[in-house]
Design a protein that fits this description.
The chain has ten helices and 13 strands. The protein is α/β, with parallel strands linked by helices and 299 residues long. The strands form three sheets. Strands 7, 8, 9, 10, 11 and 12 form a six-stranded mixed beta sheet that branches. α1 crosses α3 and α1 crosses α4.
């Protein structure tokens, strides 16, 4: 059976009094009375059956037991403070909440958000990443960037990017299959990566190009970001969003294997909520669309 822990208030009173070597200063810091600090410390001493302080006429001093206890208590309180701070909103910044598809968050937003933050140093951010459209329900974000089908996209959302599907692979994967120039005609020779939850599949690509029917779909993933990750690692050829793949296409870690892309049926949608943060959320949406246009012009 687990032993009961003393209340946190007792430990805080002890740590603060030990740091200041004063019940009076500890009371001022914790916004308590001096008698409350003294009572918390005495309760802790009673719990541990030992004296933690030596009470002197002009102040207090730690006992050996108090000195032994202090580092552990101080460390624990520091950890709790750090954990609390991760959930607190900065008081001097306006908070912009962005709910975003995991793929866009990882491969597109993460490397670029710092640029928007530089333009708006008075803005703080809360980024919530999700995979499936239904996971966005009830998040109440100021800006929403979700992967969706046209039939289920929200009426106040706009589609972002060229919304094209590209066939990509790592340079090493292609070279490992011989020195011959790559051609879509022998796509069946390669392992293929399929993104689940979308109608933009390898089978649709093959049907529109009249490719071989026996496609080797050997890896199924739940997002375009994961498809890019696996393709970059050499697992296979991915049919994925040109927007998500853009950073790897620019740096050369992925190659487009067929210059003619496929118009995607599903895609990424931007929604800006009509709330108290609408002005800065609209600025973010405009900035993002400009960034996307610049990125796609480079690939």
């Amino acid at each position: 059976m687990a032993r009961s822990l003393p209340p946190l208030a007792w430990f805080r009173a002890f740590e603060c009094a030990a740091r200041h070597l004063s019940f009076t200063l500890a009371a001022q810091e914790l916004n308590l009375t001096q008698s409350a600090i003294s009572q918390h410390v005495r309760s802790l001493e009673h719990k541990f059956s030992c004296a933690l302080f030596v009470r002197k006429h002009r102040g207090i001093a730690l006992t050996d037991q108090g000195r032994r206890l202090l580092p552990t208590v101080a460390s624990a309180i520091s950890i709790l403070q750090s954990a609390t701070e991760t959930f607190e909103t900065p008081t001097d910044k306006q908070l912009l909440t962005i709910s975003v598809s995991t793929s866009l968050a990882q491969w597109y937003l993460a490397p670029r958000l710092k640029h928007f933050a530089t333009l708006h140093p008075d803005i703080g951010f809360r980024v919530i990443s999700k995979v499936w459209p239904d996971e966005f329900t009830g998040l109440n974000a100021d800006v929403e960037l979700r992967f969706d089908a046209p039939s289920s996209a929200q009426s106040d959302s706009v589609r972002i990017g060229h919304n094209r599907m590209v066939m990509v692979a790592s340079p090493d994967l292609i070279s490992d299959f011989g020195n011959r120039e790559f051609s879509p005609d022998y796509i069946a020779d390669f392992p293929l990566i399929q993104v689940l939850g979308t109608t933009d599949t390898w089978n649709r690509w093959a049907a529109e190009r009249a490719y071989l029917e026996n496609l080797n779909i050997s890896c199924n993933v739940e997002s375009h970001g994961a498809a890019v990750d696996f393709a970059k690692a050499g697992t296979g050829i991915a049919l994925t969003s040109s927007l998500v793949a853009a950073p790897c296409l620019v740096d050369g870690s992925l190659l487009v294997l067929e210059r003619e892309s496929l118009a995607a049926h599903d895609g990424y949608y931007l929604t800006v909520r009509q709330n108290e943060n609408f002005e800065i959320a609209s600025a973010f949406g405009a900035w993002l669309q400009a960034e996307i246009a610049q990125t796609e012009a480079a690939i």
